[in-house]
Amino acid sequence: MGAKHVNPTRMELTRLKKKLATAIRGHKLLKDKRDELMRQFLDLVRENKALREKVEAGIAAANQNFVLARSGMTDEDLNVALMAPKQEVYLETETKNVMSVEIPVFKYKTRTSDPNDIYSYGFAFTSSDLDDAVKSLADLLPDMLRLAECEKSCQLMAA
Question: Phi/psi zone of residue 99: left (φ > 0), alpha (ψ -120 to 50 degrees), beta?
Fold first, then answer.
C-alpha cells in the first residue's frame, strides 16, 4: 500500500473517525444482508429438495398409470382419447425483488375453473388408470411450477 498523507489536526481526526464509523456500519449492514441471503438460500434449497422428491414420485406414479392404461387399451383408443385437450392453462410470470435479487413468480389460470375439465375423453371406452394418470399430472402442476420457481431462485441467489 502506498503512504497516505494525513493532516495532523483535530478536524481531520474527527472527519476520519466519522468516516471509520460509517465504514463499520456499512460493513455490518453488508454482513447482515449476506447472512439473510444465505438463510433464504438454504430455505429455498430445502424446499427445492422436498418438492423435487414429491414431483418425481408423482411423475413416477403417473407414468405407471399410463403404462397400465396403455396395456388395457388399444393404441388407437389411447391416441383418440388424448388427441384434443379440453382444458387450457395460461401461465403468467412476474418477478419480485428479494434483497436486490429478482426472483421469478409463476401464476397460472385455467380456461375453466371446473376440475373435471381435465378429461378430454369419454369414460366409456377408456381405462380408469388413464383417469388416474391424467388426474395425478393435473394435481402435480402447482408443485412443478413452484419447483421451477425454486430452481430459478436458487440459480439467481447462487450467482
Answer: left
